[in-house]
């Protein structure tokens, strides 16, 4: 059971570090389409490129991913 919890935790962390929810991606895309300032628009496009690379290469979205803190509750049942 311990290895299943560890494996699930690793999968969740990898997903959180390498992808954004679709609704967040859409907000960035929409902002890039509406942005009129060249520099701001290019930064939004860099963000989207960063996400694409992270997803394709399995790399963190940015260099500063912070520190993950979890509060986990497990119910143990007997078989």
What's the end-to-end separation, in Å? 13 Å
What low-confidence regions span 5 or more consecutive residues with pLDDT below 50?
A: none
Number of domains: 1
**How many runs of DSSP E, i.e. beta strands?**
0
Could you write a compact summary of the structure shown?
By secondary structure, the protein is mainly α. The protein contains 3 helices and no strands.
Can you give a write-up of this model?
With 79 residues, this protein is mainly α. It has one domain. Helix content is 63%, strand content 0%. It has 3 helices and no strands. It has helices at 2-18, 22-34, 38-57. The mean pLDDT is 87.
Question: What are the SSEs and their pairings?
Answer:
Elements: H1 2-18, H2 22-34, H3 38-57
Helix pairs in contact: 2-3
Features:
elongated; mainly alpha; single chain; 79 residues
